[in-house]
Design a protein that fits this description.
This protein is about 50% helix and about 10% strand. The protein is α/β, with parallel strands linked by helices. A four-stranded parallel sheet has the order 4-6-3-5. Strands 1-2 form a two-stranded parallel ribbon.
Length: about 240
């Protein structure tokens, strides 16, 4: 997200190449890639920079993904996604990758990812450290890529149901927010926390596309029942 220094992107590209990650997406970078980026990438990873996509928004970067991991050094208990160390989370990422594109999301060099950006993730990876938790962007990419590389070499786990595409989940969360407002589930000050809790439950469940459709259908039918006094259509005359 919004990298500030091209040289940091170059070093991150080299770390990716070391461990087999080659698709780089830059969201609204402050400066275009320059000679310093290619110098830090070295010739071995120059192709990662040459193929890098530059997009204007996180939505564009995450389009079509089925599983998103956010990385953070901050200790918070308000994440929408499940929190793992990379070694715990990497097998889950690879399982999801069998169903479609997955994404590893890194924040800005100076303050990382915002709460709203992290809400888009199914899981949060926190790298264990010895007390000083602030890592350089390229260091974080290197450690995360290494754990994914190790997990890929490990024996495969049993397959899980195909998770719903991110767009389907976001439509469900939008429906849910609207419904919670309609039924006055909580006050406006506490609504964001409530929505984050529902996101956390949904991400933990790794909902399939069919399950998301059923939940959205439940919300639609609940709206209809409230508007019609709770009777079903066969009773209405």
């Amino acid at each position: 997200m919004e990298p500030r220094e091209p040289r940091n992107v170059g070093a991150a590209a080299r770390a990716m190449k070391n461990f087999g990650l080659e698709e780089l997406v830059l969201v609204n970078p402050e400066r275009p890639l320059d000679e310093s980026a290619y110098r830090l990438a070295t010739r071995g990873a120059a192709d990662v920079l040459e193929r890098a996509r530059v997009v204007d928004s996180l939505d564009e970067a995450l389009a079509d993904t089925v599983y998103v991991v956010a990385t953070s050094a901050r200790a918070r208990d308000a994440y929408a996604g499940e929190v793992y160390a990379p070694r715990q989370g990497a097998p889950l990422l690879l399982q999801a990758a069998g169903s479609g594109p997955v994404a590893l999301m890194f924040g800005r060099e100076n303050f990382g990812l915002s709460n709203l950006e992290m809400d888009r993730a199914h899981a949060v990876w926190r790298i264990p450290t010895g007390g000083y938790s602030s890592l350089n962007l390229a260091q974080a990419v290197l450690l995360v890529a290494y754990e994914v590389f190790l997990a890929e070499a490990a024996p495969p786990r049993a397959a899980r149901p195909q998770p719903a595409p991110r767009e389907e989940l976001e439509r469900f969360f939008a429906d849910l927010e609207s419904f919670l407002r309609e039924i006055h589930y909580t006050d406006e000050n506490r609504l964001e926390g409530a929505l984050r809790a529902f996101r956390r439950m949904s991400h933990r469940a790794a909902l399939s596309k069919n399950e998301v459709h059923r939940l959205r259908g439940l919300l639609r039918q609940s709206r209809w029942a409230i508007a019609n006094g709770g009777c079903d259509e066969s009773q209405e005359r």
